Amino acid sequence: MDNIANLKEALQFSPTNIPLKMLLANSLFRLYRFDEAKEQFKEIINIDSTNIEAKIGLSKIYFNNNEFSKSIVILDDILKNDHLNVEALLLYTKVLVKENSISEAIVYYQKYSALLLHLKMKN
After folding, report:
1. pTM score, two decimals?
2. Treating both helix axes as pointing N-terminal to C-terminal, what angle do 34-47 and 52-64 enclose, rounded to 10 degrees?
3. Distance between CA atoms of 2 and 56, rounded to whole angstroms?
4. Which has fewest Cβ within 10 Å: 42, 45, 74, 81?
């Protein structure tokens, strides 16, 4: 039995187990099984609407599917509540480049770079 099948079987016994669902969603994402991963990320968000990791995962899927406006909506929501989220800032930069909003992408990349520098200096 493969890893995905094992995770799905475990979820039959604990269907709202968020860490298990995240493991499945991320595994599916790494295997480029975006439709299945998207469903898992959406289910996690339905269970816990504050789950940033699931929101970023869903945003990455939209990015990979060239659904940039959907990705932006999610990233706006994340950054509204956590403007220091490094992963969201970098993904937002990538989305804006794909949308050909270069000047705005530069602003977000500068925020991302400054935050990384700040975090490095703290350590």
Report:
1. 0.91
2. 150
3. 26
4. 81
Q: How far apart are CA 59 and CA 34, in angstroms?
A: 11
Longest CA–CA span in the chain (Å) reads 49
CA distance 96 to 68: 8
Can you tell me which residue has the tokens 């990384």? 116
Residue 48: predicted pLDDT:
96
Q: Cβ distance 48 to 19 under 8 Å?
A: no
What's the pLDDT score for residue 120?
85
Alpha carbons 10 and 5: distance in angstroms, whole number: 9
Cα-trace Rg, the chain = 16
Q: What is the pLDDT of residue 46?
A: 97
Q: Which band of pLDDT confidence, cut at 50, 70 and 90, is reported for residue 122?
A: confident
Half-sphere exposure of 84 (CA within 13 A, CB side): 5
